[in-house]
Amino acid sequence: MAVFLQSLISGILIGGVYALIGIGLTLIFGVMRVINFAHGDILMVGMYLTYLIFTLLGIDPFVSVLITFPLMFLFGGFLQKVFINRVLDALAQNQILLTIGLGLIMSNTVMLIFTSDYKILTTSYSSATIKVGGGVSVSTPLLISFLITAAITAALYWFLLKTDTGQAIRATAQDRDAAQLMGINVKRMSIIAFGLGAALAGTAGALISPTYYIFPQVGSVFTLKAFVITVLGGMGSVVGATLGGVLIGITESMSAVYISSGWKDVVVFVLFLLVLLFKPSGLMGKSRT
Amino acid sequence: MRKHLLALGATLALSPCLMAQKIGVINSMSGPEAPIGENITNGIKLAEEDLKKKGVNLQLVWEDDTGKPQISMSAMEKLATRENVVGVVGPYTSACSNAVAKLAEKYHVPLLIPAAAKEEITRQGLAHVFRMNAPADKYASSLIDAATSLGKPRSIAFIYENTDFGTSTSKTAKDYVATKGIQVVADVSYPKGSADYRSTLAQIKSKNPDLVFMVSYVADAILLMRQSREVGLQPQAFLGAGAGFTTVEFAKERAISDNVISCTQWTDDVNWPGAKDFGARYKAKFGKEPTYHAACAYASMIIMAETAKASGGDRAKTRNALKAGKWNGIMGEVKFADYDGFTNQNNHHMLVQQIIAGKYETVLPAQFATKKAVYPFPKWK
Q1: Which of B129, B130, B192, B270 is least surrounded by Cβ atoms within 10 Å, i.e. has the fewest?
Q2: Are B119 and B167 a contacting pair, CB within 8 Å?
């Protein structure tokens, strides 16, 4: 029972961070219909930013989210304005090539600057735990990052549902042309959406840094994961991405214990295929023609 | 003029002593294995300097395999057919070495592998493939022998990455513990680069093993130990086989790395000729402690280059000389022998070390020990 609870808790906590990565990707896709293959690399940039802030300024990774979030927002907005906006009407494969290219440039630039050495962020609480009882313990950094994730997700919901800009973003996602006819500046909405997506990915990077390790190619692990989460939840659905992230986290954690940790990725992909088979638009997705 | 040139060319060709020995190096200089590959590069650079001092004129052809077997293979093709090297030192990982070994045999190029652990590499009867380091079975047996000499473990749990290195090391370890009457209570492989091992470790904890045997590369080792502490996994000893548990980065993480037992091919406090001096010069030149990879690569390059020179740059002669030769240097006595199904394998002595107060200390075998071993593993703070 302790093992079951332990893996459930770890799964949910790590799933929260996955959700954050997935939400960023789904937001970008929802508004622009562009699949951002540089998403993992943006996350990686967020990790290095956190690392720099920690080693140079001595600011705690969790506190530095306050710096990372706006910086990554600007970075995302810049990418959108300079690169992505130009290919919005291009063929899907061209958009994919562009984002893959941007990702490659990011990872290789970081490799030139920092070399490919693994960087480990060691904080005083890196392996600290809170004992819950019954032999179950919760990783302190993971719990904190989960709480931050939950707060950010809640704030994002509020932003998308209640504010004018949020509603404009949703309108753009629903129908770009109609939104434009209603007087919404869709180009600006795209920049905000990409900025938000990048900021969320960067934040996820910052939140993972105290428990994971950092290297220039770390992005590829997360790009694939984000993609699975997004498709599983339904492309463009923020609720779906949240759900998908937590679901993947739990699946990974459970299958590692009850099947084999070498097979956990297989289990995740089988689940993914099953969902697509029975609900092709994803858990929360609406089919769109 | 032309005749003169021809004559000159002929003399040069006939006087191999004057000619530069062209030797290939295949190594993981970029990609995920690059942090370890760097040690190999540095070791070889130091060897190049020393060889120059000894009057061995060396021309190295560097190839980066980025840790991928297919790139390693094309590098070998290039070195063997286009660059016409006398011999090759490298590659780093087991997967790359195993792929390249067959090509070395095909092209009759002597290949000296400095630090790949997978046993099969020198178990295929390949006449042109030599290996400096002790293979995976030695990691396993020396660690388990250390544990049984320090205490009385009855059960063991395995957790290892699902790569060539991880599976082959733990497979031999499992065979070995069977002969010692130690029961395997958990046997878990994991995909490299996972963020969360907590559930797996909690499962292992529930089996309450006396020994936990881990096989991991650099970063996963730190993650595994951090999360072991989180879930409160408390065996008599943590045994870390190989790469990830023998790095300076790992030792620096004192909260989780102290008292972990690992084994290594080499340390700079061992009394093999030149080892201390190599350690000091390495640190002065590169500003880092050398790892065993650096020492293996250094010794491999020295042996390959000197043998190539003595054989006049002839591949077949070089191979025969490697086979027949005997050396004594920073890696201790080196001889490429056939034993226990191995071909051209240096029967190297492994050193068992433990991290004590943030520093690697050799604890076994007794004649090389610098500190007494801490056993059992102290309670997590």
Answers
A1: B192
A2: no
Cβ <8 Å between A118 and B249: yes
Report the predicted TM-score, pTM, of the whole model to 2 decimal places.
0.74
Q: Chain A contacts of B30, Cβ < 8 Å?
A: 111, 116
pLDDT in tens, B10-43: 544 444 445 788 999 999 998 778 888 999 999 9
Task: Tell me the residue type at A25.
Answer: L
CB contact under 8 A, A6 and B190: no
With beta carbons less than 8 A apart as the criterion, state whether B92 and B36 touch.
yes
Mode of pairing for the β-strands spanning B351-356 and B359-364: antiparallel
Which of A11, A139, A213 faces B222 most closely, judged by CB atoms? A213
Three-class secondary structure of residue B164 per DSSP: helix
Nearest to B198 among A10, A126, A264 (CB): A10
Whether the CA torsion B29, B31, B34, B37 is positive or negative: it is: negative
DSSP A17-61: HHHHHHHHHHHHHHHH----TTHHHHHHHHHHHHHHIIIII---T
> Would you call B32 and A217 a contact, using CB atoms and an 8 Å cutoff?
yes
ipTM comes to 0.75
Domains belonging to chain B, first-starting first, are: 2-134+271-346 (3.40.50.2300), 137-264+351-368 (3.40.50.2300)
- Ordered structural domains, chain A, with CATH: 2-278 (1.10.3470)
The answer to whether the Cα torsion of B68, B71, B72, B73 is positive or negative is positive
CA atoms within 13 A on the CB side of A63: 7
